């Protein structure tokens, strides 16, 4: 029984009935949203942000208070909003969706991103747990694919991804030197073996799908944009994102010009996101989100059962109404310690239910600028 939460500058409070001993819970991943390498957020009623990690504020240049006042779609470029609105509807209807879009920061900077959303349920209401992956570097590389040959070769050396060219027969006419770092093969091996080496490196369960997508690109001009599992020369597996467009070489021959990227960290983050969605949806713990001023911002179903208040009755109210009068002084003292980066463990306290009964509790602050109260069962 562990709590998880971040609500902008806010914290989370986890309470469950108290026993005579303190139990440290391991069921809920700690600080999972904040530790995701990309922008992560929970989007709720009216498309407003309910929780988010610090990456969102850093990327967009908004303060936590400003984020609270805007909707998720307001951070998207106007010409991209219908795409994102459709993806969000798809998430709520079918559980998951992805869409490429452009974020716009407070100062007007445009940030190409891949939005991935999964559906979660809190307080019997559907929410969107979303992640934004910055595609800026990928977009820059795609520009390189359209550059002149001289520019092409000089710029390719400066990027971490593998730039490649191949014809419909599988002959590789160009491959970036990064192939050795990513796949473990030398450029000479790639030129010698052609696409035989590539297809043999692709996971057997993905191989046919990759081959058919490439053939459709060359023969029909269909988009080639695929994710698959790939084995390095040393036997290690990683997730790859391969995409290409049809172009012509200097002899007028149709070739595919592509870009291969290692997306293992992104896939790991997406997997974590899926796990988090499942945990939040089925959590039996009371999870209360609040901001640094102590105002309640989220209130899950378990909290409703424990305290007797519905979500509508508490969201927007100061947490102090749940604290007995003789405990009021502990709130600013605790927040001061948390905001200074100190950890608070095994703090026994009390809370009030709607019926007026006193709920004994113990608490532990696990991460900076976040507070977690754990009052374990048995």
General description of the model:
The chain folds into 3 domains: about 1-25 and about 285-378, PAS domain (Beta-Lactamase); about 30-135, PAS domain (Beta-Lactamase, 2-Layer Sandwich); about 135-265, PAS domain (Beta-Lactamase). Helices cover about 35% and strands about 30% of the residues. It is an alpha+beta fold.
Provide the descriptors you would attach to this structure in a database record.
single chain; 378 residues; alpha+beta; Beta-Lactamase; 3 domains; 5-stranded antiparallel β-sheet; 14 helices; 33% helix; 28% strand; elongated; disordered N terminus; disordered C terminus
Annotate the secondary structure layout.
Blueprint: E1 11-15, H1 32-35, E2 39-43, E3 49-52, H2 54-60, H3 64-69, H4 81-94, E4 96-104, E5 110-122, E6 125-134, H5 136-145, H6 149-156, E7 162-166, E8 172-175, H7 179-183, H8 187-193, H9 195-201, H10 204-220, E9 224-231, E10 237-248, E11 254-262, H11 264-282, E12 286-290, E13 296-299, H12 301-307, H13 311-314, H14 330-339, E14 347-352, E15 358-363
Give the number of DSSP strands.
15
Helix content: 25-40%
**Class by helix and strand content?**
alpha+beta
Distance between the termini: 11 Å
Instruction: Return Rg in Å.
Output: 25 Å
- The CATH superfamily of the largest domain is identified as PAS domain
User: How many domain units?
Assistant: 3
Strand content: 25-35%
The CATH architecture classification of the largest domain is 2-Layer Sandwich
Shape: elongated
Number of helices: 14
Low-confidence stretches: 1-30, 364-378
The whole-number mean of residue pLDDT values reads 78
Q: CATH first level of the largest domain: which class?
A: Alpha Beta
Q: Spell out the helices and strands N to C.
A: EHEEHHHEEEHHEEHHHHEEEHEEHHHEE
Q: How are the strands of the biggest sheet laid out side by side?
A: 3-2-6-5-4
CATH fold descriptor of the largest domain: Beta-Lactamase
The major pleated sheet works out as: 5 strands, antiparallel
């Amino acid at each position: 029984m562990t709590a998880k939460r971040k609500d902008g500058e806010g914290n989370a409070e986890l309470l469950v009935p108290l026993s005579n001993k303190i139990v440290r819970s391991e069921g809920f991943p700690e600080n999972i949203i904040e530790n995701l390498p990309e922008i992560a957020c929970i989007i709720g009623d009216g498309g407003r942000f309910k929780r988010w990690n610090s990456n969102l504020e850093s990327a967009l240049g908004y303060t936590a208070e400003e984020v609270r006042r805007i909707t998720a779609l307001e951070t998207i470029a106007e010409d991209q909003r219908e795409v994102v609105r459709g993806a969000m509807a798809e998430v709520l209807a079918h559980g998951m969706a992805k869409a490429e879009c452009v974020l716009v920061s407070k100062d007007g900077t445009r940030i190409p991103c891949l939005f991935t959303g999964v559906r979660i349920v809190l307080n019997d209401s559907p929410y969107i747990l979303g992640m934004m992956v910055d595609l800026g570097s990928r977009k820059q590389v795609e520009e390189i694919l359209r550059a002149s040959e001289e520019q092409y070769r000089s710029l390719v050396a400066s990027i971490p991804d593998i730039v490649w060219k191949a014809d419909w027969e599988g002959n590789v006419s160009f491959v970036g030197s990064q192939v050795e770092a990513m796949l473990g093969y030398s450029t000479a091996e790639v030129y010698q073996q052609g696409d035989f080496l590539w297809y043999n490196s692709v996971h057997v369960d993905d191989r046919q799908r990759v081959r058919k997508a490439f053939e459709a690109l060359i023969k029909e001009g269909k988009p080639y944009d695929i994710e698959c599992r790939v084995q390095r020369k040393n036997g290690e597996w990683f997730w790859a994102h391969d995409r290409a467009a049809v172009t012509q070489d200097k002899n007028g021959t149709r070739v595919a010009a592509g870009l291969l990227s290692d997306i293992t960290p992104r896939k790991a983050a997406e997997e974590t996101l899926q796990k988090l969605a499942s945990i939040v949806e089925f959590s039996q713990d009371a999870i209360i989100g609040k901001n640094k001023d102590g105002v309640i911002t989220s209130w899950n179903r378990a909290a409703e059962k424990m305290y007797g208040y519905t979500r509508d009755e508490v969201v927007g109210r100061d947490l102090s109404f749940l604290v007995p009068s003789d405990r009021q002084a502990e709130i600013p003292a605790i927040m001061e310690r948390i905001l200074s980066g100190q950890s608070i463990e095994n703090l026994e306290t009390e809370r009030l239910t709607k019926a007026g009964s006193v709920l004994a509790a113990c608490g532990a602050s696990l991460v900076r600028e976040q507070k977690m109260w754990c009052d374990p069962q048995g």
